[in-house]
Specification:
The protein is built from 8 helices and 8 strands. The protein has an 8-stranded mixed barrel with strand order 1-2-3-4-5-6-7-8. It is globular and about 50 Å long.
Length: about 375
């Protein structure tokens, strides 16, 4: 993106042109500068894109043989299936002790963990490291396990682990999660998935200490994202890594609340990209992820979707609840089982299981 000067970015933003993070596994540093050919968008009229490309300084030509029209399409929105009680359908380790029993009693609830839609506005970074994609089984648990536990669990059944890197609403202490731990488990072959528990919607029925309002949504989204980047960087997770925003259940039929949530998510995602980190979101299929997946305006939405659908099916495709054109090119993950108590090498951990085909952290 070295030729994307500020004036060019504004022109592309006006035309609603969006760069797709999920294409990055197939792009080289040189092709990411070729704006005209590598853009996907929602409801974007092709003439607007062409005019923006013509006006932009140093506009690069499309790669030979690649049709601009073939890279542009409108993402259709499909309503997500399933229902979940407001603030109840979530993994037990993100809840209070009382809430765990409620969650265990509602394991039939459909949940979606969102990590981002294909719609992405122009990025301010001068260059983007290639996406590091992991495809396989991953686990998440509230507290990062000890190094000895991670070594014992390195049997091949799981290849990646999600870790809660920060956020005022993070539910567990992280005594093991240090830069040294990250380096050691990465050297042992583990892939890591950074998860940040940011501010939550004003209409959410929970006791989360940090919430946004319509007035504070944009500012909190920005400051939370800056904190997330600082936390990831301190752990040795380099630019180019994804950060998945944890957004719990809320009443999406409350328009004011939903609008504020989308404002917050867009601000968070935009700020991540400005600092060369990939954007993602964890949410619910009947609420927070549905709001992202079905939003008409695709501007600044996350680029990877981690959806939790507790059906015990290890897949990111067979049970995909939305338009199949959404979140392709290694940008999906599926939480398919929760609160699974498992033992390996003498170490017992309660985890959630995930089918993963999405970006993971770059360590170094």
């Amino acid at each position: 993106m070295g030729t994307l000067a500020a004036a060019s970015e504004n022109l592309f933003a006006e035309a609603a042109a969006v760069y797709v993070e999920t294409m990055s596994p197939t792009l080289t540093p040189s092709t990411t500068n070729q704006r005209g050919a590598w853009i996907r968008c929602g409801a974007l009229r092709l003439p607007e894109l062409n005019r923006a490309a013509q006006k932009a300084p140093s506009a690069a030509a499309a790669p030979s043989g690649v049709s601009l029209r073939s890279r542009v399409f409108a993402d259709a929105s499909v309503a997500a299936a399933g229902r979940d009680p407001n603030g109840v359908g979530m993994s037990s380790h993100r809840l209070s002790k009382r809430g765990r029993y409620i969650a265990w009693a509602t394991t039939g609830v459909v949940v979606v963990a969102g990590a981002g839609i294909a719609a992405q506005t122009s990025m301010a970074a001068t260059s983007w490291p290639a996406q590091k994609t992991y495809t396989g089984r991953a686990f998440d648990t509230c507290t990062a396990p000890s190094l000895s536990a991670m070594k014992a669990w390195n049997t091949g059944f799981y290849g990646a682990a999600a870790v809660y890197i920060g956020g005022k609403n993070r539910g567990c202490a992280q005594p093991n999660l240090t830069a040294s731990w990250v380096k050691s488990v990465s050297a042992a072959g583990w892939k890591l998935i950074p998860l940040y528990v940011g501010a939550q919607p004003p209409c959410q029925t929970s006791r989360n200490p940090e919430r946004f309002t319509a007035t504070t949504a944009a500012a909190l989204g920005k400051s939370n994202a800056e904190d997330a980047v600082a936390k990831a960087s301190a752990l040795g997770m380099k630019p180019g890594s994804p950060i998945y925003l944890n957004m719990e259940s809320y009443d999406t039929t409350n328009k004011a609340c939903n609008d504020a949530t989308l404002t917050y998510v867009r601000s968070f995602s935009k700020t991540l990209r400005a600092k060369t980190y990939r954007a993602g979101l964890y949410g619910f299929s009947s609420s927070s992820a549905k709001a992202i997946a079905t939003a008409t305006d695709r501007t600044d939405l996350p680029g990877n979707l981690w959806y939790a659908l507790w059906n015990n099916k290890n897949t990111t495709t067979a049970d995909w609840p939305w338009d199949p054109k959404l979140y392709t090119n290694h940008s999906r993950a599926h939480q398919y089982m929760v609160n699974s108590k498992e033992s390996r090498g003498g170490h017992t951990i309660t985890v959630d299981r995930n089918a993963w085909d999405a970006p993971v952290a770059l360590i170094g």
